[in-house]
Amino acid sequence: MDAIKAFFRDQGRHLRKEVWEVARQIGERPELGYKEYFASNCLSNFLKKHGFSVDLGIAGMKTAFLARFKGNHPGPTIAFLAEYDALPVMGHGCGHNLIGAASAGAAVILSKSLNLAGEILVIGTPAEETSGGKVTLVEKGIFKNVDAAMMFHPGSQNVSVISSLALDAIEFTFHGRSAHAVAASNFGINALDAVINLFVGINALKKQVNRDMKINGIITEGGTAPNVIPERAVARFYLRARKRSDLDELREQVIRCAEGAASMVSAKVTWRKFEFSYDEMHTNLSLAECFTRNLAEMGIDQIAPPQTAMGSVDMGNVSRVVPAIHPYLTLGTGTEIPHTREFAQVSLSANAENLVLLAMQTLALTGWDVLSDKRLLQQIKREFRQFRG
Ligand SMILES: [Zn+2]
Known about the structure:
CATH topology of the largest domain: Aminopeptidase
CATH class of the largest domain: Alpha Beta
Number of domains: 2
Number of strands: 14
Radius of gyration: 23 Å
Bound molecules: zinc ion
Helix content: 40-55%
Strand content: 15-25%
């Protein structure tokens, strides 16, 4: 490891306690998407204390932020992305408290260099679990002048190259006609029956679509009383596929199912997207290889082969506008299952403290390579241009 990287590694060790305190506090005060007031303040204050200028409340989202630190001469711009939202009931069952802290920590480590070219950004991205704050940030052009974007996600193994599934969140509302369920049943149109038809239809459809296409639904409204024929019933679905183009086709198939389900009982159906759509994650391989090399320098050489996460991440939308990586690093036990109470517990453990240190050091070293190695950045950009066609 060269002298400057050894310096960054030491800076990480100095910051360890302070950054862990940020991760721990956010972990102990879980907040849902767009309500992460404590977390966004906590991260902003940490960054301000270390000389970053911070705009809290950007792109129309109160809990999104943009923190900047300019080097002493011109150069590329890199962005570390900070997530910090939690899940209902189980708190930080996806470990986003660690993501925010590690990204902010990496940025501060790099800012300690006396010879920094370019600019370091930390972008605070709310609501990853629900309506993807990154989607809005992409649409509002926040990534316009960014040369590379990166973050890490805690998990059960080390993986540098991932893809994820594109996702559409579709809500169907069935409109029928209410009537007494017994005395005037022939007058009613049962909207709940239409929803049930839809689930039956979708169960049949699932047998015909590719195995990596996923359809998961719940009924969110199904009537008000057993003796009233439901005039309105609502169901919500997440539809996923490996590629946006495949997902567009799947969505059309599901909509046809809903129309059929409605017409079987003479009901009407309307639909809308109830959350933002996520695109599939496209990992920039040149940047991911750089991250892997730095992991090796940190003594981690057990890296799993490229993986398709069976979930969806809003980093997918970022990866279409800027070269990006979304690696996973293990929390240590190898059995962590995301979105569980157990995962939330591990995200506050000594393993998590060690992981935040490793993640922020490795992200900082990778950031340094992008800022200082012109050839690497050219290669990253060439690959990105080819991907964008
Ligand atoms: Zn997550």
